[in-house]
Amino acid sequence: MTEWDIKKLHILRTLRDRGTVTATAEALLMTPSAVSQQLANLAKQLGVRLLEAQGRRVRLTDAAHLVLRHAEAVFAQLERADAELDGYLRGEAGQVRVAAFSTSVPALVVPAVRHLRTAHPRLDVRVREAEAAEAYELLTAGEVDLALSLAAHAPSARDPKFSRVPLLADPLDVALPAGHPLAAAPGLRLADLAAEPWIYGGSGPWSEITTAACEAAGFVPEQAHSASGWTAILAMVEAGMGVALVPRMASAERRGGTEVVMRVLSADQPRRHVVAAVRGGAEEGPAVARVLAALHRAAAERETVQEN
C-alpha cells in the first residue's frame, strides 16, 4: 500500500498555493532545501513525479494535482476530527453512560438528557436502568461512567474508588385509599398510621426504607402485602388493602384517575437521599461534569416544584 505522509502532503499543498519553493519555505518556517528534500521524499514514497522544472521555477505535475485532490479530502476529515476532539476535550462531545434506578430515570435522568440535547447536542448520554448493586458493579467494571442510587446503598464516602455527589433529598409521602378515615385528617403524622396494614417490598431498599421510617416514628409496621413496583403498590392501596410510603419522585409520575390520596406528612417527614457516583477523579472529566451539572439542574428544578 502507498505510504501517505500528512506533513509532506501539507508542504505540497502549500507549494501549490504559494507558487514557489522560497515562498513555501517562508510560510512553513523551513529552509528552501528542506522543502525540496521533503517533496523529493514524498515523490519517492508515492512512486510518481510531483514536480517538474519550468524555467527557474517548478510546477506541479498532473500526478501532484491528483494526489492533492485526494489529500484535500483527508485534510477536511482531519479538520472535522480536530473540531470533534476539541469538543470532546471541552465536554461538548463524546459519550457518557449512566446507570440509574427506576424512579430516577423519569424524574432526573430524562430531564437532564433533554437539557443536554439542547445545550450540547453532540454529547451522547446512554441510559441503563439498574438498581444499586448492579449499577456499582457496572461502574467498577468500566461499563458505565456514572451511577445514580440512594445514598443508603451507595459506596462509603470514604471509598477512594468512587466520588459521591449528593443530588436530591426526596420526600416520602403516604398513600391512602380515598375513603380512608385519615385521608383528610389535618396534621397527619406517620405515627398515626401505626395500626394500619402496610404494603412494601419483601426485601431490599424499599423494605429497609419503610421499616426504618416507621421505626423512627416509634412503631414497627405490620406488612400486610409485598410488592416491588409502584403500579402494584398503588393498585393495592386503591383497593383498600393497606397504606404505603411512596417517594415523591415516583408519585409525581402517577397518572390521574386512581382513587389514592397522597398525603404529605407533618413534622416527621421521612426522606430518601439520591446520590450520583463516578469512579474516583472522573468527575473532573468535562463530559461527565456536564452530565452531573445537568442532573443537579434537574434535581434543583424538582425540589422547587416540590416546595411549591
Describe this structure in words.
The protein is an alpha/beta fold. The chain has helices at residues 6-18, 21-28, 32-46, 62-89, 104-119, 132-140, 205-216, 230-238, 248-251, 286-307, and strands at residues 51-54, 57-60, 94-100, 123-129, 146-150, 162-177, 197-199, 222-225, 244-247, 260-263, 271-279. Helix 1 (6-18) crosses helix 2 (21-28) and helix 1 (6-18) packs across helix 4.
Which secondary structure elements does this structure contain, and how are they paired or packed?
Layout (H helix, E strand, L loop, with lengths): L5 H13 L2 H8 L3 H15 L4 E4 L2 E4 L1 H28 L4 E7 L3 H16 L3 E7 L2 H9 L5 E5 L11 E16 L19 E3 L5 H12 L5 E4 L4 H9 L5 E4 H4 L8 E4 L7 E9 L6 H22 L1
Parallel strand pairs: 3-4, 3-5, 7-8
Antiparallel strand pairs: 1-2, 5-11, 6-9, 6-10, 6-11
Helix pairs in contact: 1-2, 1-3, 1-4, 2-3, 5-10
Helix-strand pattern: HHHEEHEHEHEEEHEHEHEEH
Number of strands: 11
Provide the gyration radius in Å.
32 Å
The helix content is 40-55%
- The percent range for strand residues is 15-25%
What is the SS-derived class? alpha/beta
The tally of helices reads: 10
Biggest sheet architecture? 7 strands, mixed
Tell the overall outline: rod-shaped
Give the N-to-C terminal Cα separation: 68 Å
Mean pLDDT: 88
- Low-confidence parts, pLDDT < 50 over ≥5 residues? none
